[in-house]
């Protein structure tokens, strides 16, 4: 499948226009931020190429480009944690997308088995230097060894 | 300022460890997702280099790397829309950060004057092909021509 998105136009068209003209980077990717539609914050961060974006738009189910595996990735195809897209938005310069989703199965979005990939807090402020990350919301909802084996 | 972050260790250390070892890309950047601490969803998407991340951690105020200007960028330095970081998290493979923030001034995070950079919905589903973007939450809280002039 090749991209049928139009190339980005002028600065003003990109920011103020109502035509989706994604600004793919030199690897052909845009950023994709996934949040929990039920108010649970950021679940994961991934990338889409034109094919993944087209598949997401057409099906309403989240598809990404797996940089590690070099292939189209229908989220949940192995684990069952499919993501239904309740709303898709694009940012001002059209190089980032925001997917508000509902996750199937156990509700875990992270391949480590957690609900969110963001399960560690980075301490900030005057006394932050050298402090360890702080685990938060890090319960495993599934065992990745079982789900991804074989 | 050079990075004093340790280099990423093993796969297991990166995902399960409590040491911040950011996985900077070939341009020396990690992704930075900014959400509204008061439940207002995703405000913007940007990047940080080691210096921006160190400054954000030390000050509790959001700093980024401006790819367009090629310089450290203390968000709000021109517009007054400084971002106080209420919580900073890192993702499983430590190449993305999530900043939960409160925005000063008018509360606008986007350089176009809107509260969020994500002010257009991309239609999805069976009849989505060829449909225009749909403006949402796109009121301008400030006039960019005035704020960024001169």
From TrEMBL, chains A, B:
Secretion signal, residue range per the UniProt entry: none
Chief location of this protein within or outside the cell: cytoplasm
Subcellular location: Cytoplasm
A GO cellular-component term linked to this record: cytoplasm
A Gene Ontology biological process term: L-histidine biosynthetic process
EC number: 3.5.4.19
Gene Ontology terms, MF aspect: magnesium ion binding; phosphoribosyl-AMP cyclohydrolase activity; phosphoribosyl-ATP diphosphatase activity; zinc ion binding
Chain residues that bind Zn(2+): 92, 110, 117
Pathway: Amino-acid biosynthesis; L-histidine biosynthesis; L-histidine from 5-phospho-alpha-D-ribose 1-diphosphate: step 3/9; Amino-acid biosynthesis; L-histidine biosynthesis; L-histidine from 5-phospho-alpha-D-ribose 1-diphosphate: step 2/9
Cofactors named for this entry: Zn(2+); Mg(2+)
Domain Phosphoribosyl-AMP cyclohydrolase: residue ranges: 44-119
Principal EC category: hydrolase
UniProt keyword terms in alphabetical order: Amino-acid biosynthesis, Cytoplasm, Histidine biosynthesis, Hydrolase, Magnesium, Metal-binding, Zinc
InterPro entries hit by this protein: PRA-CH, PRib_AMP_CycHydrolase_dom, PRib_AMP_CycHydrolase_sf
Residues where Mg(2+) binds: 91, 93, 95
Annotated coiled-coil segments of the chain: none
UniProt cofactor note: Binds 1 zinc ion per subunit.
Top-level taxon of the source organism: Bacteria
Catalyzed chemical reaction(s): 1-(5-phospho-beta-D-ribosyl)-5'-AMP + H2O = 1-(5-phospho-beta-D-ribosyl)-5-[(5-phospho-beta-D-ribosylamino)methylideneamino]imidazole-4-carboxamide; 1-(5-phospho-beta-D-ribosyl)-ATP + H2O = 1-(5-phospho-beta-D-ribosyl)-5'-AMP + diphosphate + H(+)
Description of how the protein assembles with itself and partners: Homodimer.
Biological role stated in the UniProt entry: Catalyzes the hydrolysis of the adenine ring of phosphoribosyl-AMP.
Family note: In the N-terminal section; belongs to the PRA-CH family.
Protein name per the record: Phosphoribosyl-AMP cyclohydrolase
Species assigned in the record: Hansschlegelia plantiphila
